[in-house]
Amino acid sequence: MSDKIDPALRETPSPLSQTLGFELTDWTEGFARVEAPLADHLMNRQGLPHGGVYAAMLDTAMGFAGCYTGDAEVRQNALTLSMTVNYLSRASGNYLIAEAHVTGVENPRFSHAARCVMTPAH
């Protein structure tokens, strides 16, 4: 896993992120990268990552992408209003990587749109 986050901005992962093994590894204005090892507890009965793991990881990355302030004293939070996930292929490799980019802001105080892509890493 890479780690490009300003140490002053590093946050303690949420209990869900800790349980699932998600790690925020890059976070800048309008961008976030979340990585997770493909561990046994993330797999479905076919031995593939559960679709809910993908969704949770995408949701986490998109939330962080829209909440960057660049100031450790100013924390921005978000709630997902709507999200669509299209599953195109099954995972391979040792890690999942979700990279999210903010694509638009309707109202900086209330909402943003983001696009996130999940890729495997070896």
Protein architecture, described:
GO terms for molecular function: hydrolase activity. Its EC number is 3.1.2.-. The chain is α+β, with helices and mostly antiparallel strands and 122 residues long. It has a single domain (7-121), classed as Roll (Thiol Ester Dehydrase, Chain A), CATH 3.10.129.10. Helices cover 18% and strands 30% of the residues. The chain has two helices and four strands. The protein has helices at 15-20, 51-66; strands spanning 23-28, 31-37, 95-107, 111-121. A four-stranded antiparallel beta sheet has the order 1-2-3-4. A hairpin with a 3-residue loop joins β3 and β4. It is globular. The mean pLDDT is 86.
SSE layout and pairing:
Layout: H1 15-20, E1 23-28, E2 31-37, H2 51-66, E3 95-107, E4 111-121
Antiparallel strand pairs: 1-2, 2-3, 3-4
Please give the radius of gyration in angstroms: 14 Å
- What is the CATH first-level class name? Alpha Beta
- Distance between the terminal alpha carbons, to the nearest Å? 10 Å
The number of strands is 4
**Strands side by side in the biggest sheet:** 1-2-3-4
H and E order: HEEHEE
Helix run count? 2
Largest sheet: 4 strands, antiparallel
Number of domains: 1
As a percent range, the share of strand residues is: 25-35%
Mean pLDDT: 86
Shape annotation? globular
The chain-level structural class is alpha+beta
